[in-house]
């Protein structure tokens, strides 16, 4: 089109302000550091229930990763993100009742697991460390 009009096209100059970039980098750095703190707390094993739930979640993700490729998992996640809120709004009473029953059953199973397995693991005495 410029060859027809014999004038060079005007392309505007685009600049991102340095202050904005530094603010975004600062926010991202804070969030990454917060995630590292959470990961360190989980990996330390202080909260055993959270530690075991993370292990179980990673185990489920690894099984799903064996069955499906990445794009299929992304597609399933997107479909679920769009359909589950609508499903919950429509059937919230029934979903809450089933979730409450499932939570009670999970707590029973965890109590049995704690009594049979976790209580038999020897634990060392904790010594108070002076810093």
TrEMBL record:
Give an example GO cellular component term for this record. Answer: endoplasmic reticulum membrane
Q: What is any Pfam family matched here?
A: Reticulon
Q: Which residues form the Reticulon domain?
A: 1-131
Question: Do you know which PROSITE patterns this protein is assigned to?
Answer: RETICULON
Record field: transmembrane: 74-91
- Alphabetized PANTHER family for the sequence: RETICULON, RETICULON-LIKE PROTEIN
Q: What is this protein called?
A: Reticulon-like protein
